[in-house]
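Notes from the pairing session

We agreed to fold both candidates in a single pass and log them together. This is the raw record for the first candidate, unedited. Please don't reformat it; downstream parsing expects exactly this layout.

Candidate A
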Amino acid sequence: MLFPQGVAVAFGAATLFSHIVSAVPMDVEKRQASTVKASTSTPAGPVAAIGTILSALGGTLITGADAAAEVLTELANIVPTATPTSVPQATSMLSSIIASATAKSNSSLYEIAAQYILNGLGPTDIAAVVAGYSAGDNSPANSNTATPSKIIYPKASAQDAPYSQNEASLRQVIHIPATFTYGKVAPLILMPGTGSRGGVNFDSNFIKLFTGSSFADPVWINPPGFQLEDAQLAAEYIAYAINYISSISGNVNVSVLAWSQGNIDTQWAYKYWPSTRKIVSDHIAISPDYHGTILAELICPNGFPCSPSIYQQEANANFIRTLNTDDGDSAYVPTTTLYSGVYDEIVEPQQGTGASAFLKDVRGVGVTNNEAQTVCSGYLLGAGGFNTHESMLANSLSYYLAVDALTNPGPGDINRLNKDMVCGSLLPPGLTLTDLLATESTIPIAAVLLLLGPAGFVTSEPPIRSYAA
């Protein structure tokens, strides 16, 4: 582990990465043998340098911890060589990056993140972003003093699983903005993905789009471990939040919108905290991985430091297998899934009924599975064209179907909408190039946090909790 939990973000931006790298001393001969030196990287060099570092894993030249420090240094030293000036240019750059990674077949998340930063698709000062990642909208220590109108802890229902954390810890990760209306507008809980917190995950997309609307009032979850901790722990945060937000909002129903891993956390909560199901009107799943991903090993290659939730998202993980038993691969509440069948660089497979995002409906609650390239077929320059794992957050189809779901009974239904309006543009009304770039930044930020390991490093996935075993 490079740092104990919470230490990394305490450093100032200017010294953050020097502290990180110096915390993991590297033998000089091993550094030379790896043929990679961060100080000599050229603008075209960081991607190749990171590839060289990772290719040395599993041998005797470099340890996993040393490799992580080297990769971190490479990412920190990158100076962007381009800046997109239009949405088409940004998507063209993204398409080239992901196509190149796909052709290589074993490109790691860190090589992709380096290309994002080089091409102006990530923060210009990623150290400053990470250093300020625990304040304001991203704070995991919020003061929520509203008292629930009914008992929700230690259990809201006798059938609920037990929490492993005290109520104060569960409550403080919920960020309730000053704009929240406490039930005058239907609450919407936003659950982030791996290597993220609610603020940075959604500020440039759904927080911006829905704040002040008449149908969705956003609050969000800021997990202290940046969604890198045990996913069973993250499930406790969203299970408690659903009951808490409803109970302080006149006991109205809430809805949940989640990205990536946030969806399997929430599905676990629905399964093992059944009290949540009856008070959730809709679940909107952006780029979910209900069946895990076969690309997890590109995030944690052999011998590389790995966070708990990464192991849990492997396609053959015990967590995924347990989640999907007893019809856990079917919806518990009305659910709208939205995902890209082409160029999702994090989750595969994502095509057809075999997509990791695909959810069944044995309970008859209502499900629509919406692969962007299928629903918006023919709109290659719009919502049905190129979409990454993260750009689905800023996709026009995602926005319109989310609105449709939140304003109608049941899941979002494309048949109720004007397809030209929904699919004709890549971005929805209200989002700009700046928002798209900020949304794309979630990937390099997540890559850095994976290297920092704020939730600690492990060598295998956490055991299944006794209530689910």
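Candidate B (folded immediately after A)
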Amino acid sequence: MWIKIKNWTKGIIFALGVIYAAIFVYNNSGSPVSFWWWFGHTPQTTVFYLAAFAFAAGVIFTLLVRMMWGTVRQFRKMGASNRTEKLEREMADMKAKAAMLQSKPTTSSDGVTVQVDQLGG
């Protein structure tokens, strides 16, 4: 029952949008307007074409801005990843150096090399 109501509501809203768009096109397709876009350039066009091109320009601008933010986000993520990898490499190097410093080989009286821990061994 609720699904039918939801579908009918969507259908009615879509139909009203299509009707409004048709009325908009009919009423504005013949109305002339002069559009200023640069000094000395004011071409004559209709309100419909002006609105359509403004809408298309807005869509293109929105897509470009979203793409730009995505690229900025990727650069930030890449920088953070590089910093993390560098810190991990530095930490591994420090651990390797610390492991080398903790034990040193010594020779016993028998001539056998034995590892002795400097910290307590």
